[in-house]
Prior knowledge:
The protein has one helix spanning about 1-10; strands at about 60-65, 70-75, 85-95, 120, 125-130, 135-140, 145-150, 155-165, 170-174. By secondary structure, it is mainly β. It has a domain at about 60-174: Immunoglobulin-like, CATH 2.60.40.
Amino acid sequence: xxxxxxxxxxxxxKRDFKLLSKYFSAPGSFxxxxxxxxxxxxxxxxxxxxxxxxxxxKLLAIESLADGCRIRPAKADALGSAKLPIEVSVEFAYxxxxxxxxxxxxxLDFDLADKAFSITVNGCIIKExxxxxxxxxxxxxxxxxxLTGFDKNLRLRIRLNYKEATDAATFDAQ
Length: 174
């Protein structure tokens, strides 16, 4: 096998450190070989930022229950500095085989307006409850929201969006 490799490569085998540099370059370095693909605006190289800002902490957390979910503050003091009230929008769907669960929602799966669903709230007010969407407003920093009544045999997907009253910065959690 080694002899065949020697015949094919022409003798001595040397390491070529620039072999894949066209495809895997070090950040911030420029290759002498032009890469294929889109160029930046006006042919300028896009600078790499020196300091990446830390991610913002989420204010709300989702806990899964046997047949539903619980939404609560992410930490004990998470809503202390938040701008209350917080508008929360939650979307539910049963997970399918390989498609987006929220796009594949069927009204025959479930309807949150049915009496089979039990909602327990503390420190928040429900604004909307239709099909697979539920909206509520958090008024107290120590709120608790529970929704039960889903099928225990199917996997539930939950999409949570919220917006602070003053800041208007929307965060997504999935």
